[in-house]
Amino acid sequence: MSATHLEVILDVWLSLDGDEAGDEARRLVQWLREDTDLRPTTTIHVVDTPGKPGDMGPGSELIQVAFQQHGVLVALVGVLTTWIGTRRRNVTIRLLVREKEKEKEVLIKGAKLEDPTEVAARLLRELNDHG
Description:
The chain contains three helices and five strands, in the order E-H-E-E-H-E-E-H. The longest helix is centred in the middle third of the chain and has 15 residues, at 71-85. Helix 2 packs across helix 3 (116-129). By secondary structure, it is of the alpha+beta class. The relative contact order is 0.21. It has a five-stranded antiparallel beta sheet with strand order 2-3-1-4-5, with helices on one face.
């Protein structure tokens, strides 16, 4: 492995539920890309998913955030809780964290904001318990 290639430790997938989730997903991607704590340590991609049978219009957008250091998860959850606190509409962020063969999902709801450090610690603890 070359010194410039970083092995991805955590792979986080975000999806939004709520009114205008597609527009909100695009706003969230912009917010994440502009965050000075996340920018140098993360890779952010948007993945369009196909709509379900019978849906009108396109499917939802998934946001992939990949990074190497576990500490970045605390920063990411902090950015997400700050962002969701600025929304006027009721938005829920579905956060799926994958580490190697393990994964854990948590919901961050605008109506019930939690401490980012606690959410990140719980996710990492539960990932480790599955190993």
